[in-house]
Write a structure and sequence with these properties.
- This protein is 18% helix and 41% strand.
- The chain contains 3 helices and 10 strands; from the N terminus they run ααββββββββββα.
Length: 163
């Protein structure tokens, strides 16, 4: 196939443009993370057996407010030692250090003992407690404006998944 000279020159010019690299994404700010989150993954693994807690009826909703306060609910049917439902109020505070979110609330939950990594619109945490590994992934619900650093992070994550 014959390529017109003008197209060949344009193609060569594009080849010499510096690549736009994502590199290390900037650490998110508290402003980037403010919003309402819903667990999209909540699993427990013990003795090689994994349980999908969401499929079993559990739910986690978490709100991270701009004033560093939190609200939300953790519900696990049959999650108490006596077999009754575990229902915890997640009212408390949150902190951000680099790209790591930590929670503090009065309810005695694994959530306050698990750090979460912030990436784009997701928070991901995994920790082991007494032989049980718990993994939680939160997705931020839509409805809040995106900041420039969040958009940059989303673009980099998209590029990584294409590679």
């Amino acid at each position: 196939m014959l390529i017109p000279p003008r197209v060949r020159v344009m193609s060569l010019g594009l080849a010499f443009l510096p690549p736009i690299a994502c590199g290390e994404a900037e650490a998110p700010t508290m402003e980037d993370l403010v919003g309402t989150y819903q667990a999209t993954t909540f699993t427990t693994e013990e003795g090689g057996s994994t349980t999908d807690q969401l499929a079993a009826g559990a739910s986690i909703a978490l709100i991270l407010n701009a004033d560093a306060s939190t609200a939300g609910r953790l519900f696990v049917p049959g999650g108490n030692p006596d077999g009754s439902d575990f229902d915890a109020d997640l009212t408390g505070t949150w902190a951000l250090n680099g790209g790591t979110v930590t929670l503090d609330h009065a309810a005695d939950t694994f959530m306050r003992d698990m750090p979460y990594t912030a990436e784009g619109t997701r928070l991901t945490g995994e920790a082991t407690f007494g032989g049980v590994t718990i993994r939680v992934v939160f997705a931020r619900l839509l409805g809040r404006p995106l900041t420039s650093s969040l958009i940059s992070s989303l673009n980099c994550n998209t590029e990584r998944h294409r590679a």
